[in-house]
Amino acid sequence: MTPKKLLLLFVLSLSIGTSCAGTPKDVPAAPIQQEQTEATEPVLKTIPKTVAPKDVFATIVAQYKGSVVFFDFWATWCPPCRQAMKMVDDIKPSLAAKGCKFVYLTGETSPQADFDTMYKTIEGDHFYLTNEQFKGLCDQFGVQGIPFYILVDKQGNILYQHTGYPGNDEVQSQIEAAL
User: What is the dihedral of CA 173, 174, 176, 179, to 10 degrees?
Assistant: First the structure.
C-alpha cells in the first residue's frame, strides 16, 4: 500500500471515530442529563417548513444578528453528539454569560418523540428541521458526519467549522476570540 493510501486510511479512521455518519443507527435515545443553570433555558424555535433548504441557514442566522452563535448539528441517535453536549456543558454557562448563543440543529432522522424529550434537557435554542432542510444545510457546508459545528460572528460571518467535537479548549478559544 502506498504512503498516500495509508495516510488517507488513517485520516478516514480518525473522522469515523469522532463523528456519526448521516444515517441513524439502532442506538437508544436516552435523554441527555445536565444540570440546569441560569445561562440559557432550552427553547424550541421554528422556521416555516416552506423555507427552501438553500435559505435555511441565512433564515436562522438572521434571528441572531448581533450575537456570536455556536451551531451544533446533531441527532438523537448519535452517541458522539450526546457525549459532546455533556462535555460542552462545562464551558457553556460562562460563554453564554459573555453573550454566546448556543443553537442546536437536527432533522427528522431524529424521531420526533425522542427529540421532544431530549431537547428539554439541553440548554440553548433548538430547531427541528424537515429532512429536506437539514440535508440542504449539510450539503451547503459539506457535512460528512455529525456532530458538526459552525461558529458565526455578530455580523453573521462564519468564523469556524469542525466535524467531531474538537474539545472544550478549542471551542472556548474560538468562541472567546469571536466575542
Answer: 170
Q: Among residues 102, 104, 105, 163, which one has the least CA distance to residue 133? A: 105
Query: With left for phi above 0 and alpha for psi between -120 and 50, is residue 92 left, alpha or beta?
Result: alpha
Half-sphere exposure of 99 (CA within 13 A, CB side): 12
Hey, what amino acid is at 164? G
pTM for the complete prediction?
A: 0.80
- Residue 65: helix, strand or coil by DSSP? coil
Largest CA distance in the chain: 55
Which string of DSSP letters, residue by residue, matches 83-148?
Answer: HHHHHHTTTHHHHHHTTEEEEEEE-TTS-HHHHHHHGGGS-EEEEE--HHHHHHHHHHHT--SBSE
> Directed axis angle between helix 79-88 and helix 168-178, to 10°?
60
pLDDT tens-place string over residues 122-173: 999 999 999 999 999 999 999 999 999 999 999 999 999 999 999 999 999 9
